[in-house]
């Protein structure tokens, strides 16, 4: 196939952003620019669905590969997808239009700039998930900082400056070490092409340090305990759409990076550092779940729950078993849908009451019933109730963990219980109980677009909960081949 | 008979300077005319340099005291273009301060001439002559707004400290002459005996002098004061043009006569580089004046450019040249923005004056945003690639410590660039600035911003051009 479908996926949002930039929006044509943004992101979504239909699930080879010389004798612009990355691309293109749709009244000033930032962000994130060259990957990975910094800083809440700085500097600090590692890999092996590196492998004596350098970047981005502290701040201060992007897609870049690079390139080092990842994951699961129990701010609570969920993801990845990694990917997709939905749910009540504190609410079930039902659904999905996508991921991860390390699995399962506790308690305090705050009576139920967005997120949450086959089929071969390669390299010590 | 064609650019420039001096004396109110002629002269010199010398390979003239090769031609052309833009965008500024005089362009031309001699020098004496010619012109330029006490102070300070460093440099030259019996770079290289420790002293003294000219830590003390006190247009000139010349002298001096002594100067250069990167990044955090901030940021950038030279390889030299080229581009853009911050015949240069700029001047702030992120080295902007090449060549030599310190100091530096962006984008707006800027100012801002922005689409071109530089 000659049509460069992946490059189009990357470029299309940028073209949309340029179009918005040149229309020179004012207050009057706010709707026009929004339609342009929606249009481009929906076209991108359908394009990625088309990509999925063309995708061959029976092979773990990279598909739709584009390979162009970018810097002579040094870097090639190489992109392609396999079963692992295609799901993340789908997630990105699915969440972005919903994100744009959700901007109703929350963003009043500089709407067109906001849309430009979101669209450019989408380009970068798709780029991250399909780049097959370490330098290209780094470029997209880092470039995403710019739009997100602006989204938090310009349209954020009261402490936005602090949060934006913290977000930017934390991630930058993590990433520069990865840059050192990438250049070192180039000098060690003579290439930065991932496919090539999979074949030739990296000498064992370098692997530990390189692994740590990549880890420093991914750990901050995941985020893992103890470098997770930027996340609650960033989430709380970001506007709803920003939180959704952050939780649903940005956090997945690191999980993806662990699978693609840490496992694929440094198997020996991964083996060495598995206990470290286990320990950090378990601490993240238990510790942040307890912190989440104590939160009074809804967004903060969900942010901490994200850290706990990502703890499950890293745990699953480093079990290095088919179920574990499959579970992690499904958990990431599911978390992308559910946390996006939960942030949108918070956004809905915030738009009406301008408060994110749990205390403000209580007893709203009779006033806004539709909202309460959907919120219920996502709460249950977040705690992993069977029949929702959250269950599939957590179940697979725990199953793999039990095989690998019984103690870790027991503690992690305990985390599931606390997870249930804080989510249900949140729901109880917000939706049930006595209606004390009389201002709440004026709240209006979900309007059409909100209902549409939340239903769009609810359908896949339920569908993949009952029938995860499409997801598993897509990733199965890629993962089994990855594990095979991993074990082969481990044995043959290359 | 020597081939005078190759030094034709220098000859043309010096004759033009004399002609302009005479013209200035005999014709009243000719400052505008002279400004325009000087601009044309700079362009013509660049064209001549390009035509006559870009393809000559390597030729030495006048008992090999002058060298013309690809490095010198490339650096000269970059410098001439930078000087041209620096001169052309500053005319409005000079008019506002009523210092739009005939001497200004002539001084700029003479310092450019001095720098061209420096770049082409293959002999300590020729090099020193060029250096002093450019310095003398720069002293006067720093104090050009003589009614302003800060400007006078800047000029005096620069003069005193620069004279001191020239003294050190000369002492170093004399030591080297004493131990090798020659001032010519080639002869020094052949006479070199690495057991002479006094020779190392000579190198150290010359390095100190050079480090002073390029404002590398710990010889940077003059830079913030001089940058702040001088008229902004002169600061712009200071930040970009002498750096190009000083860097090429660094390259020539370290790699032609003293390449075999690399163990002796490598550590010194690594120290200069690390100290500049770190100090520049940390000290800029507390600044409130934009020009001072630029001074510290340029100190930090010089550190990165020097990091490329520590490697002792052609790759390293090339990465340094790429770095300085992109650095010039970014600073041109940054200063174009500074020169646009004018309201009621007054220029604003404090950080708070940027407050909320994005509401009133969206395009200006967008350019600033791009330039600042690029200065911070965030991909996919040009500044990232500049750093990337540097670290690529540094890591080739397995100098991990230098690379890691350098990259960590980019994180520190990112903080103050982010602070500027925060002030521009997140803070409350102030009054509008004037928008009637000259065409050249708009052009230089747009061109530099666009180049920074789209550099990532064709990164090979610059590498290709630079890869012909072959010193070793």
Descriptive report:
The complex is a heterodimer of chains A (494) and B (472). By secondary structure, chain A is mainly α. Chain A has one domain. Chain A contains 19 helices and two strands. In chain A, strand 1 and strand 2 form a beta hairpin. In chain A, helix 3 packs antiparallel against helix 4 and helix 7 crosses helix 10. The longest helix of chain A has 32 residues. Chain B is built from 20 helices and four strands. Chain B has one domain. Chain B is mainly α. Chain B starts with 7 loop residues before the first helix and ends in a 6-residue tail after the last helix. In chain B, the strands form two sheets. Chain B has a two-stranded antiparallel sheet with strand order 1-2. In chain B, strands 3-4 form a two-stranded antiparallel ribbon. The interface between A and B is medium-sized, with 31 and 30 residues.
Question: Which properties best describe this structure?
Answer:
heterodimer, A: 494 residues, mainly alpha, two-stranded antiparallel sheet, 3% strand, B: 472 residues, two-stranded antiparallel ribbon, 20 helices
What's the end-to-end separation of chain A, in Å? 34 Å
Strand residue percentage of chain B: under 5%
- Please tell me the overall pLDDT of chain B: 88
First and last CA, distance of chain B: 28 Å
Number of strands of chain B: 4
């Amino acid at each position: 196939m000659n049509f460069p479908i992946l490059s189009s996926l990357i470029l299309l949002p940028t073209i949309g952003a340029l179009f918005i930039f040149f229309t020179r929006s004012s207050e009057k044509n706010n709707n026009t620019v929004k339609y342009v943004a929606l249009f481009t992101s929906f076209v991108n979504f359908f394009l990625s669905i088309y990509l999925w239909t063309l995708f061959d699930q029976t092979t773990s080879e990279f598909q739709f590969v584009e390979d162009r010389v970018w810097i002579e004798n040094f870097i090639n612009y190489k992109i392609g997808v396999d079963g692992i990355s295609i799901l993340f691309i789908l997630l990105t293109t699915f969440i972005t239009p919903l994100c744009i749709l959700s901007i109703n009244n929350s963003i009043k000033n500089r709407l067109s700039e906001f849309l430009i930032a979101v669209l450019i962000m989408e380009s970068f994130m798709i780029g991250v998930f399909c780049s097959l060259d370490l330098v290209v990957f780094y470029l997209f990975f880092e470039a995403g900082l710019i739009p997100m910094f602006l989204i938090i800083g310009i349209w954020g809440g009261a402490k936005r400056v602090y949060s934006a700085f913290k977000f930017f500097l934390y991630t930058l600090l993590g990433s520069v070490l990865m840059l050192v590692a990438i250049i070192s890999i180039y000098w060690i092996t003579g290439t930065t092409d991932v496919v090539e590196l999979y074949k030739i492998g990296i000498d064992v004596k370098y692997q530990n340090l390189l692994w740590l350098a990549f880890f420093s970047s991914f750990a901050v981005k995941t985020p893992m305990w103890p470098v997770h502290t930027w996340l609650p701040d960033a989430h709380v201060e970001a506007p709803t759409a920003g939180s959704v992007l952050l939780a649903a897609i940005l956090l997945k870049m690191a999980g993806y990076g662990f699978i693609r690079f840490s496992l694929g390139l440094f198997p020996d080092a991964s083996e060495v550092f598995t206990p470290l990842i286990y320990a950090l994951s378990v601490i993240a699961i238990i510790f942040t779940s307890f912190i989440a129990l104590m939160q009074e701010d809804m967004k903060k609570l969900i942010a901490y729950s994200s850290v706990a969920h990502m703890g499950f993801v890293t745990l699953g990845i480093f079990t290095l078993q088919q179920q574990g990694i499959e579970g992690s990917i499904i958990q990431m997709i599911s978390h992308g849908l559910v946390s996006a939905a939960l942030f949108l749910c918070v956004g809905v009540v915030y738009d009406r009451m301008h408060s994110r504190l749990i205390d403000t609410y209580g007893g709203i079930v009779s006033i806004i019933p539709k909202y309460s039902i959907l919120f219920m659904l996502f709460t249950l999905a977040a705690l992993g109730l069977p029949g929702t996508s959250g269950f599939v991921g957590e179940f697979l991860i725990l199953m793999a963990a039990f095989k690998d390390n019984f103690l870790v699995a027991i503690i992690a399962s305990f985390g599931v219980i606390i997870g249930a506790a804080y989510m249900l308690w949140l729901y109880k305090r917000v939706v049930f109980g006595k209606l004390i705050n009389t201002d709440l009576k004026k709240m209006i139920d979900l309007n059409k677009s909100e209902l549409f967005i939340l239903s769009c997120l609810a359908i896949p949450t339920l569908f993949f909960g009952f029938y995860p086959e499409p997801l598993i089929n897509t990733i199965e071969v890629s993962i089994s081949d990855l594990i095979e390669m991993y074990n082969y390299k481990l044995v043959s010590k290359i | 008979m020597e081939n005078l064609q190759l030094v034709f650019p220098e000859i043309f420039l010096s004759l033009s300077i004399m002609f302009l001096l005479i013209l200035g004396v005999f014709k009243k109110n000719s400052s505008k005319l002279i400004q325009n002629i000087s601009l044309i002269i700079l362009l013509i010199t660049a064209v001549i340099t390009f035509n006559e010398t870009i393809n000559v390979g390597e030729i030495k003239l006048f008992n090999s005291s002058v060298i013309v090769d690809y490095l010198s031609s490339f650096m000269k052309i970059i410098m001439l273009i930078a000087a041209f833009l620096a001169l052309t965008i500053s005319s409005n500024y000079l008019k506002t301060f009523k210092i739009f005089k005939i001497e200004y362009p002539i001084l700029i031309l003479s310092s450019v001439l001095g720098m061209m001699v420096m770049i082409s020098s293959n002999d300590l004496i020729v090099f020193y002559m060029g250096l002093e010619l450019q310095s003398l012109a720069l002293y006067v330029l720093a104090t050009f707004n003589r009614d302003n006490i800060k400007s006078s102070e800047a000029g005096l300070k620069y003069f005193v400290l620069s004279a001191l460093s020239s003294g050190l440099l000369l002492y170093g030259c004399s030591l080297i002459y004493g131990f090798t019996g020659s001032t010519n770079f080639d002869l020094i290289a052949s006479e070199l005996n690495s057991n002479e420790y006094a020779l190392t002293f000579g190198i150290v003294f010359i390095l100190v002098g050079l480090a002073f000219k390029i404002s590398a830590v710990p010889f940077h003390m003059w830079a913030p004061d001089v940058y702040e006190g001088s008229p902004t247009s002169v600061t712009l000139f200071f930040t970009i043009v002498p750096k190009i010349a000083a860097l090429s002298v660094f390259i020539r001096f370290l790699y032609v006569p003293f390449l075999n002594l690399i163990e002796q100067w490598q550590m010194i250069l690594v120290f200069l580089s690390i100290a500049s990167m770190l100090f520049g990044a940390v000290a800029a955090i507390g600044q409130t004046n934009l020009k001072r901030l630029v001074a510290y940021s340029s100190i930090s950038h010089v550190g990165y450019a020097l990091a490329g030279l520590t490697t002792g390889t052609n790759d390293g030299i090339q990465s340094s040249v790429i770095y300085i080229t992109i650095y010039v581009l970014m600073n041109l853009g940054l200063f174009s923005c500074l020169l646009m911050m004018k309201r009621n015949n007054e220029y604003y240069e404090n950080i708070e004056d940027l407050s909320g700029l994005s509401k009133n001047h969206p395009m200006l702030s967008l350019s600033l945003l791009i330039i600042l992120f690029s200065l911070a080295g965030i991909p996919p902007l040009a500044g990232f690639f500049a750093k990337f090449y540097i670290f690529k060549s540094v890591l080739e030599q397995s100098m991990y410590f230098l690379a890691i310190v350098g990259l960590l100091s980019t994180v520190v530096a990112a903080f103050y660039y982010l602070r500027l962006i925060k002030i521009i984008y997140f803070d409350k707006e102030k009054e509008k600035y004037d928008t009637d800027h000259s065409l050249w100012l708009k052009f230089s801002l747009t061109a530099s911003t666009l180049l920074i922005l789209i550099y990532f689409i064709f990164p090979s071109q610059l590498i290709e051009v630079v890869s012909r530089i072959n010193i070793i």
